[in-house]
Design goal:
By secondary structure, the chain is of the alpha+beta class. It has helices at about 15-25, 50-80, 85, 95-125, 155-165, 170-180, 185, 190-195, 195-205, 210-215, 225-230, 250, 370, 390-405, 425-430, 430-440, 465-475, 480; strands at about 25-30, 35, 145-150, 150-155, 215-220, 225, 230-235, 240-245, 300-305, 310-315, 320-325, 340, 345-355, 450-460. Helix 14 crosses helix 16 (about 430-440). The chain is elongated and about 120 Å long. It starts with 13 loop residues before the first helix and ends with a helix.
Length: about 475
């Protein structure tokens, strides 16, 4: 059935429509309880913000906090540091998370403590001592200097001659050499004035065994050589001794022409070797001090020493034999208290092991009181050209002795103008209290940053009569005497 279209029009009163529109276009302000349009064309009318807008700003701040918390938890869960992932794990209780946080903080505190401790040690001693992985070739290292002394202080025949025909000064000097009494108790004032150094020097040279009597046979680098070409006589704190491979005196002392010492001869060519500088680039292969040609007894020094026991009158030890010390070629040895004792009738083999302290040049920029060593150009000695700890101590003791007694011992470094102590100075140099106080200044001597020292390992065995007959015949000695 078809019906005609009917249009239905709902007509709302105009008044109600206007009222509805007006409510949509107005904000209700609780403060003034009045209606204000949310759009204002007049810019002079102030617009106030509602609490909902203020809550919108606070929401942005909370959103930032939540974002940071989310990123922090993500970092904790993905961090490889031990313990942090447990702090951000939500499945754990608060106590468990707090425990891991406390453990992590404790680990940080301990790590900081140890780091500060290591840093403090580095500040006090900024040097690192390590073993050099590179070996040093023998062509860069000198053979050690060797000083040999017979412990016999006086030959019997010479001592008996002095007792029979010697002067009163000779007898007092012999008593001083062999007695344990102080020189001040032995020498009277009138005799002590005559026993000056020149007289005492001649006495020591005459009564001590000479090097040509001590050294019977010498072989260097498998070559038989004259012992006089290898050794020099030297006055040490043990008396007259024999030295091998000590650097030329022109290379050891600053003013060698002013030295009041024995007349010495050295092999040529002499090389200016120092522990810090080593051998010069243009140094000849056979330059002195000599280098070892290889390892083993065939490339070393072989000696036959004659103790001459029959001539023993008084010794510095309770046995017969020799005192031997190996030292840096640039140093003057002190052998009385440091020498190794070798008895007669024995074969001794000495294995030498060098100990080398080498410092990098960068250490020179570190303060001396922190690195505790000196480079050669940082302290200049008065007598010695090369700075070493032993040379510094020897020179310091000489200066202390010179300040105390206005003289030095005969074995100390000196020049021609320095007076050598005689027996008249015994009361002064035997005053050990004042001398020890003077020696305290020697504590300022520091080790050299580059030093070479030698350690020896000794093995001995008694000589066999059957094996030494041939050698005794070559040396024109009987087998009994040789053994």
């Amino acid at each position: 059935m078809i019906h005609p279209r009917k249009d239905f029009n709902f007509i709302r009163p105009r008044k109600s429509i206007d009222k509805h529109i007006n409510k949509q276009n107005l904000w209700v302000h609780e403060t003034h309880q009045e209606l204000t349009p949310w759009y204002v064309w007049d810019t002079k009318i102030p617009i106030s913000r509602s609490k909902s807008e203020e809550r919108l700003g606070n929401g942005t701040y909370r959103q930032t906090i939540k974002s940071f918390s989310r990123d922090l938890r993500e970092y904790l869960l993905t961090s490889t540091l031990h313990g942090l992932r447990y702090i951000g794990e939500k499945k754990l209780t608060w106590f468990e998370r707090f425990f891991w946080l406390a453990a992590f903080l404790f680990s940080l505190i301990c790590a900081g403590f140890f780091i500060l401790n290591v840093y403090a040690k580095w500040r006090l001693s900024p040097m690192i001592v390590s073993i050099n992985p590179e070996n040093m070739g023998l062509n860069n290292l000198p053979f050690p200097a060797i000083t040999i002394c017979n412990v016999n202080q006086a030959k019997k025949t010479v001592a008996q001659r002095y007792i029979r025909t010697g002067t009163s000064i000779d007898k007092k000097l012999l008593e001083s050499l062999c007695s344990t009494h102080n020189d001040s108790d032995i020498f009277e004032d009138n005799i002590a004035e005559s026993a000056d150094w020149e007289y005492t020097r001649s006495f020591l040279i005459n009564i001590t065994q000479q090097c040509n009597e001590m050294l019977t046979s010498c072989r260097w680098n498998s070559n038989v050589m004259s012992c006089q070409d290898l050794f020099n006589a030297q006055l040490t704190d043990e008396g007259l001794c024999c030295t091998f491979n000590v650097v030329h005196r022109d290379k050891m002392f600053r003013n060698p022409k002013e030295l009041n010492d024995l007349n010495l001869t050295f092999p040529l060519p002499a090389v200016d070797w120092t522990p810090e500088g080593g051998y010069p680039p243009n140094a000849p292969e056979n330059g002195f001090p000599w280098k070892p040609k290889g390892v083993g007894t065939k490339h070393g020094l072989t000696l036959v020493l004659d103790a001459n026991v029959a001539e023993y009158y008084c010794a510095s030890t309770e046995s017969a034999g020799f005192k031997i010390v190996m030292h840096n070629p640039t140093e003057t040895p002190k052998i009385a208290n440091l020498g190794e004792i070798f008895g007669p009738g024995m074969e001794a083999r000495v294995i030498i092991q060098p100990r080398i302290l080498d410092a990098q040049s960068d250490l020179q920029y570190i303060e001396i009181n922190k690195r505790l060593c000196l480079f050669s150009d940082e302290k200049e000695l008065l007598f010695y050209r090369t700075y070493t700890l032993k040379n510094c101590e020897m020179e310091c003791e000489a200066n202390a002795m010179l300040d105390l007694c206005e003289c030095v011992f005969y074995y100390m470094p000196k020049n021609k103008s320095t007076r050598v102590c005689g027996k008249a100075d015994a009361k002064c140099y035997e005053n050990s209290t004042q001398f020890q106080e003077k020696k305290r200044v020697c504590e300022d001597c520091m080790p050299a940053c580059t030093e070479i020292s030698f350690f020896e390992r000794i093995t001995t065995a008694p000589l066999s009569r059957a094996l030494v007959r041939n050698l005794a015949w070559k040396l024109n000695k009987t087998t009994d005497y040789f053994v």
